[in-house]
UniProtKB/TrEMBL annotation:
The lineage of its organism: Eukaryota, Fungi, Dikarya, Ascomycota, Pezizomycotina. GO terms for molecular function: transcription coregulator activity. One of its GO terms (cellular component) is mediator complex. Keywords: Activator, Nucleus, Transcription, Transcription regulation. Pfam families: Med14. This is Mediator of RNA polymerase II transcription subunit 14. Component of the Mediator complex. It is found in: Nucleus. It comes from Extremus antarcticus. The gene is RGR1. Residues 37-78 have a biased composition (Polar residues). Residues 96-304 form the Mediator complex subunit MED14 N-terminal domain. Belongs to the Mediator complex subunit 14 family.
Length: 1093
């Protein structure tokens, strides 16, 4: 043994040296190709290749620790070291600075609420009279001890938060050099890993050395092994002379098993008294299998036909999960010995008792192990498990304040259950449940003992506990609500989330019910949807064991509705009414006791006299219009305002049923109802100042549904206005009314803008209805019935409806007149479009759009401004390819400047100018790069066309002229004023001759007049094309000499008879030099549009 130990130590040392050599080899690998390098003193010239202490021979340079200078140079030029491990930066233990700041802000908010709660708990001896909305009058210097204590608490809170945020600021400044700090941490992590690696290596070596003590074996018997392998016998083993049994054949084996089956069946049926739970058995393959439901299956057999011999254990299988399918050999051996002993001493009853207790204990241990796993998971710090001999306790909601709750799973002896029966007592798994320290006798918990899952058991217990808590709350809250209240409570199944049961508190004003459920993991109350009031109540219920949940939750719907009303009022820029004096007669004014109420001024247009009030309770909220008045002191000084009258805002039945939430629409509906009477009174005063006859009448317009609520007027009062007297002041000359005499104007509430609060942002909607005279506005009736105009509608019987959105309290009689006048105008537009056969795609009070060309499809849109100047804006479509975009501004100016038949002339000009403008675009597209042609519009019907080099530089004009033929007038295009665009030069003789020849030619749609061309719309396009061909045919021709020099101009002569039509002969004639032409006279501007009768 000593020799083997020494050999083992030597091998260990050898392994260590090899490991060191391996490490050194890896370190020297990058520079092993360098000549003269030595590793641990190795060199080629030393004795046996070894240099002591790295000493080199004389013919080599000196080395330090066996490393030469050449090796140092190679090492310095090697690759940089590998990057440090930075995996720690992505670990869960690292938290961002933003998260820290968020938590600091959250803690500041929580501390503020806590401070405010503590301040509210300070008793106040004397309190000045309070007013609604929390307004308290100023009474002088503060000398109250309670007030000073509250101020001290608030200052302490501010000081603590200041220190905390200063620390956060320091951390923020420090984090600006986070990259350097992270690099330093990388180095520290690397050093820690190296130290840990050293410690682990030492521990591993020590463990290997300790384990080697048990690995020692005696010296092998080489001679004996060789003899056994060679001969198959061992000479030193004595021969006992046993005769080996014969192997059974398949038939003999089957016969034996059948004999054993008969023996087992005979014995179990005739001689054995089976235990109660061993009644379920089967016999096969020479064994009897006893099945105990949800526990185990055990296989037993006999070794003799004698009926008094014992049974023997064969195998066991567990019938529950989780359980192993194959038992470990050690456990199997243990069970086999124990079961055989029980079978020998107590028979089958002893076998059952032992295995039954073994399985029950194993189930309890399995559940306990699962409970410990839960504690390490999501139930951490919320569940506690404790083992007590053959039972264990699971405490849930451990972090909740107050008495604790738990359930206990253990093994009961079963003696109480067996009282009065002949069946012996059998142990079983028992369950006890304690809620808040009180045992629940009839818990009706149904655990699955076959599929063991302690989490499922825990969830079942928590679910029943939560349901009991919610049922108790529902009963107590229902007792606090008044009779015949719309407030409803019910328990229902949760559609999502961890909780399966919840308590719903609903009021008609809530958009969705308030759901209260018990969080299954922590046991805390959770209120959804979240709000300021719900957060406050959650904190109180979860932190204060003495708080009454029923009382707090009963007031939660009122607080939530009030919070939503305040939020919606703030979004609508409603101003809380201040400077109200405390009153003791509010119950008399409102007719009920007030607990929560708020007063608002929806806009500055309401003034100081009127306001909206809302009261809250479990019977719902009620809206009131209150009248305010100043309250004066004995010295006749104004000390505030008081409520003198309150009138409930009556909502239609359909609106009450549809008001499922406190929303912007709800508040606007209430405001519209409240504003109705005031608005119509203001309108009547305006009509009286305008000397317009009117009458005010009550209407009976019941609301029976959503559609009726949307279309019926908010107020039940309507104004009937005289149409002729309203329009007479703006009509000139003879005018025939086109509508019935009476116009009906109804109020439809207030419409809010998106800007800041102000009087101008609040709009009032009114609807004006009238009936057309028979045969009037036929064209308008045809188009409006098919359009989607929002502010104008016409029915099949000739009824017209107009919608007006005007500032609250501002006159809008002028706008009514403009709308009515615009209706008459767009009817005229529709008639012109029908006459021109232009398809109208949209016709309304705000804009008119029609198509004036089908190939290509071109359309124009007339947008009427609403700023009061009455101007019209033109928009041509498509925006990028419409030819008229070239003259859009000129057409728009001409349209707005024309007073008579402006739209008819505009449509005529569109048809007249379209071919010419299309031709301009085609001519420009021929030379997109060189830009040899330029079109300059002077008016919508007057254009100047100029050609540039390399084409002959010349210009000519295209404009319209009016031709009178008897009583008719016609408009023709005239192409004239051909001249050179170069100052001081004339057109070349050839070009001039060609143009003169064209001017003497004639076609179907155009005709030459010698010096000009007259054409219609189509002929103008053809003439422009021919002129362009002529000009382009002279590209690169020599320039004409300046005026004043002697030249041989060309003249057009009559073509010969056999020449083709349209041609002209050119003859050269000497001509005297002419003086240079005088400067061109300024062109007189003509009107944009030619006026036609």
């Amino acid at each position: 043994m000593d020799e083997e130990g020494a050999r083992g130590s030597l091998d260990l040392k050898t392994d260590r040296s090899h490991a060191q050599e391996g490490v050194s080899h890896v370190q020297a690998q990058p520079v092993k190709a360098v000549a003269g390098s030595q590793l641990n003193g190795s060199a080629h010239n030393g004795s046996n290749g070894i240099l002591t202490n790295g000493q080199a021979p004389e013919d080599q340079p000196p080395t330090t620790n066996g490393i030469s200078d050449s090796m140092a140079i190679a090492t310095s030029s090697a690759d940089p070291p590998p990057p440090l491990d930075q995996s720690w930066r992505k670990g869960e233990q690292n938290k961002s600075l933003g998260l820290l700041m968020s938590r600091v802000a959250q803690q500041c908010y929580y501390d503020l609420n806590k401070t405010l709660d503590e301040m509210s708990a300070v008793p106040v001896t004397a309190q000045p009279p309070q007013q609604p909305n929390g307004v308290v009058p100023h009474t002088g210097p503060d000398t109250s001890d309670a007030s000073l204590k509250k101020k001290g608490m608030l200052m302490n809170y501010a000081n603590d938060q200041r220190d905390r945020f200063i620390k956060t600021l320091v951390l923020s400044d420090w984090s600006r050099n986070g990259a350097e700090k992270a690099r330093l941490i990388d180095v520290k992590v690397w050093l820690d890993k190296q130290r840990d690696a050293y410690a682990r290596a030492e521990d591993a070596v020590a463990r290997v050395k300790m384990n080697m003590q048990q690995a020692r074996v005696p010296n092998p018997n080489i001679e004996g092994a060789m003899e056994v392998l060679a001969t198959g016998k061992a000479s030193w083993v004595p021969d006992l002379g046993y005769i080996p049994p014969k192997r059974l054949s398949a038939k003999q084996l089957l016969k034996t098993l059948r004999s054993m089956n008969v023996t087992l069946a005979t014995r179990l049926n005739l001689y054995e008294e089976l235990p109660y739970y061993f009644q379920d058995y089967s016999i096969a393959d020479g064994r009897a299998t006893f099945t105990v439901k949800d526990e185990f299956e055990v296989d037993l057999s006999v070794a003799d036909e004698d009926t008094v011999t014992q049974f023997y254990f064969i195998d066991i299988r567990l019938s529950f999960t989780p359980a192993t399918a194959v038992l470990d050999e050690r456990i199997r051996g243990f069970l086999e010995g124990k079961v055989n002993y029980q079978l020998a001493t107590n028979g089958l009853q002893g076998c059952y008792d032992f295995l039954h207790n073994f399985v029950l204990t194993h189930k309890v241990d399995t559940l306990q192990d699962q409970a410990l796993e839960l504690i390490r998971g999501k139930w951490f710090d919320c569940v506690k498990a404790e083992k007590l001999r053959r039972s264990f306790v699971v405490q849930y909601w451990a972090s909740a304040p107050g008495p604790k709750s738990w359930f206990e799973i253990g093994i009961s002896s079963g003696k109480q259950r067996a009282v009065g029966t002949r069946r012996p007592a059998t142990p079983h798994i028992s369950l006890r449940w304690f809620q808040k320290g009180v045992e629940v006798k009839d818990h009706k918990l149904d655990f699955d003992w076959q599929n063991l899952d302690v989490e499922r058991c825990l969830v079942q217990v928590i679910e029943k506990h939560s349901l009991k808590v919610l049922d108790d709350l529902r009963t107590r809250i229902g007792a606090l609500a008044p009779a015949n209240t719309p407030f409803k409570t019910r328990t229902s199944d949760a559609k999502s989330g961890p909780a399966r049961k919840l308590l719903s508190l609903s009021l008609p004003s809530l958009k969705q019910p308030i759901d209260v459920h018990v969080e299954p993991v922590t046991g805390q109350f959770v209120v959804t949807p979240p709000s300021t009031a719900s957060v406050k109540i959650e904190r109180r219920l979860n932190n204060d064991p003495s708080a009454d949940p029923a009382r707090w939750l009963a007031g939660l719907p009122c607080a939530v509705v009030q919070g939503r009303v305040l939020k919606q009022a703030e979004l609508l820029a409603w101003t809380p009414t201040t400077n109200l004096v405390r009153q003791d007669n509010l119950a008399t004014i409102f007719g009920q006791k007030l607990q929560h109420f708020s007063i608002f001024t929806p806009s500055r247009a309401w003034g100081e006299k009127w306001a909206l009030a809302v009261t809250f309770g479990l019977d719902g909220e009620k809206w009131w219009v209150v009248e305010l008045d100043e309250k004066r002191s004995d010295q006749l000084e104004t000390v505030g305002r008081v409520i003198t009258k309150a009138r409930a805002v009556e909502m239609p039945q359909a609106a009450q049923e549809d008001a499922s939430s406190v929303s912007r629409a709800t508040l606007l509906r209430v405001e519209r109802r409240a504003v109705g009477d005031v608005a119509l009174s203001t309108l009547s005063a305006q009509l009286q100042r305008e000397n317009v006859a009117y009458t005010m009448q009550k209407l009976f317009l019941p609301s029976t549904g959503e559609e009726a609520e949307r279309h019926n007027p908010i107020s039940s009062t309507a104004l009937f206005i005289s149409f002729s007297k309203l329009m007479k002041s703006i009509q000139k000359g003879k005018w025939t009314p086109w509508a019935n005499e009476m116009l009906r104007l109804t109020h439809h509430g207030v419409v809010y803008g998106n800007c800041a609060s102000g009087e101008g942002d609040h709009k009032v909607r009114h609807d004006l209805r009238l009936s057309l005279e028979p045969g009037k506005l036929k064209e308008l009736h045809t188009y409006i019935a098919q359009s989607k105009e929002r502010d104008l509608a016409i029915n099949s019987t000739g009824g017209v409806a107009l919608r007006f959105i005007t500032p609250f309290g501002q006159p809008f009689i002028r706008e009514i007149r403009q709308r009515l006048q615009r209706i008459e105008r767009i009817d005229h537009y529709a008639a012109v479009l029908r006459q021109r056969r232009f398809p109208c795609t949209y016709l309304g009070l705000s804009r008119v759009r029609f198509t004036y060309s089908k190939t290509p499809e071109l359309s124009v849109e007339l947008v009427f401004r609403t700023d009061g100047d009455g101007r019209t804006t033109l928009k041509f479509h498509p925006h990028d390819s419409n030819p008229h975009r070239r003259v859009r501004i000129m057409l728009e100016q001409a349209f707005n400047a024309t007073q008579t038949n402006a739209f008819k002339i505009f449509t005529f000009v569109l048809l007249l100018t379209l071919p010419a403008l299309q031709t301009f675009e085609r001519l420009e597209e021929k030379e997109l790069v060189r830009r040899v042609i330029a079109v300059h519009p002077r008016t919508a019907t007057w254009f100047s066309i100029a050609y540039h080099a390399p084409l002959p530089q010349c210009t000519f004009t295209l404009r319209t002229k009016t031709r009178v033929e008897g009583e008719k007038k016609s408009v023709k295009w005239v192409i004239s004023e051909f001249r050179s665009s170069t100052a001081g030069q004339n057109l070349s003789d050839d070009l001039a001759s060609a143009i003169k020849a064209l001017c003497r030619d004639k076609a179907e749609h155009w005709e030459g007049m010698g010096t000009a061309i007259i054409a219609d719309a189509r002929g103008a396009a053809e003439a422009l094309e021919k002129l362009d061909e002529i000009v382009r045919s002279f590209e690169g021709a020599p320039k004409q000499p300046p005026a004043g020099e002697i030249a041989q101009p060309t003249q057009l002569s009559e073509p010969p008879k056999d020449a083709p039509k349209g041609s002209a002969s050119i003859k050269q004639e000497p001509k005297k030099a002419k003086p240079a032409p005088a400067a061109a006279k300024p062109i007189k501007q003509e009107p944009d549009v030619i006026m036609l009768d």
